[in-house]
Write a structure and sequence with these properties.
With 170 residues, this protein is mainly alpha-helical. The chain contains five helices and no strands. It starts with a helix and ends in an 8-residue tail after the last helix.
């Protein structure tokens, strides 16, 4: 009997995964994936690795005084949740700006989302490098590269948006 229950549960899980895959293929576009990766890298990845770094090496290792304060005051989970909320708010503002814009901003926002994802990856790398005992990249360099990426990629996206021809549906 338990074998039949296991087979039924396994088949249900496979059906759920199949339906989610179909939904993802039909409904997700590049921008949706960029929103998800920005949240995963900048929000969760940086938050978890920063909290882990501070739990191993102490709060003084963190270059961001706000993150250090949140870790000291609210602990590991408090820092991670705060970072996730901050990222959610940033992504929500980006979404609202694009939604309310009278012009096409699809590729401009994609440029920003790619830059945010890259910033998250650089922060995760710096945190894990510090935990491993090596010297991480300087925070100023990471911020400079991030700002440079935002400027270059949003400008490139704006150029593409301004040269995109929209075909009206009849």
């Amino acid at each position: 009997m338990t074998e039949n229950i296991r087979k039924g549960t396994t088949l249900e899980i496979i059906d759920i995964i199949r339906l989610l895959t179909i939904f993802a293929v039909r409904k997700l576009n590049v921008q949706h994936i960029l929103y998800i990766t920005a949240f995963l890298t900048f929000g969760i990845g940086d938050g978890v690795t920063a909290a882990y770094m501070m739990s191993v090496l102490g709060a003084g290792i963190e270059a961001n005084p706000v993150a250090s304060y949140l870790f000291i005051t609210y602990g590991f989970n408090g820092l991670v949740i705060a970072k996730m909320w901050l990222t959610f708010v940033v992504l929500f503002v980006v979404f609202i700006i694009q939604l309310k814009s009278s012009t096409n901003m699809y590729w401009t926002m994609n440029g920003f989302l790619v830059a945010l994802t890259a910033g998250g990856i650089m922060a995760v790398n710096a945190n894990l490098t510090a935990v491993s005992g090596r010297i991480p990249e300087a925070p100023g360099e990471i911020i400079f590269i991030y700002v440079l990426l935002v400027l270059i990629l949003t400008e490139a996206g704006s150029f593409v948006d301004s040269h995109t021809v929209t075909v009206a549906a009849n």
